[in-house]
Amino acid sequence: MALKNTFFLLLxxxxxxxxxxxxxxxxxxxxxxxxxNLYRVIFFFPNVLSIVIIxxxxxxxxxxxxxxxxxxxxxxGLENCAKPWCGKxxxxxxxxxxxxx
Length: 101
What we know:
mainly alpha
């Protein structure tokens, strides 16, 4: 089961990351606008952050009661979608994919 989940994470993260990276790279190199360097910094900034800071950030996002994700879902009227995201295996896998990408 662990090996299956590992390969699933590997394939999905790699596919999402590569598609998004190629799309944003093409947009940043092919278009001409003033904010080009700002977007380059914004896209590169997560690579510079410490993994500890990213872990703290995602713990605040996924906190079951007052997490940012659940507060946003409740704020737009999707109370049924708010849940403890890391409470089940399927939620943990997609949360890890989002964090890794």
